[in-house]
Amino acid sequence: PIFNNLTYMRSFMFLLGLTLFTPIFFSGLYNILVFAFFVVAFYIILALKEFVLVKRIWWHYSLVISLLYLATFIASLKVNPDNFFSITALLAVSAFVVMSEFTKVSLEIDTPKSLLISAVFSFLIFEGFWVASILPLGVIGSANLVALGIFMCMDLATNFYTNKLDWRLIWRRIILFSVLAAILFSGVKWRL
Hints:
Helix content is 79%, strand content 0%. The protein is mainly alpha-helical.
């Protein structure tokens, strides 16, 4: 653990950045709940760094998904036509940073391939956020749709690099994505 100091620095810096900007977006009880999430995320990073947790890949996976979910929620909350591209680009860059750490540390992929996977993943998040912002889903619905896409992409990539990916798993994930997206879309008032 002494030589493991900078391994999870990207997640920590991402968490620190979210912590600094969160009081601008939330107030009251929501602020307390978000900061409680930040405390839990900080201790997960600390436990990952110190090799305390068993099944570290699952904990790191959960940490990355929850950090990106909160980032997409904040981006969905503050996006408007004037700042759409800048917020979406910031979300894609932050996803690139966090995913490059995840692929390098947890999946143990060498750096060039890790950067390529992270770039493709951040592009998919950029496109998913763009599609979710066009649909009339609202703030929570668009954040949930993007988070669902993040979960599916990360799950397929993790299973691919741990040699657990087969056709049955792919079909199960497609069905799960379709059912959860249908549930999200069922709560939307579609009108022109």
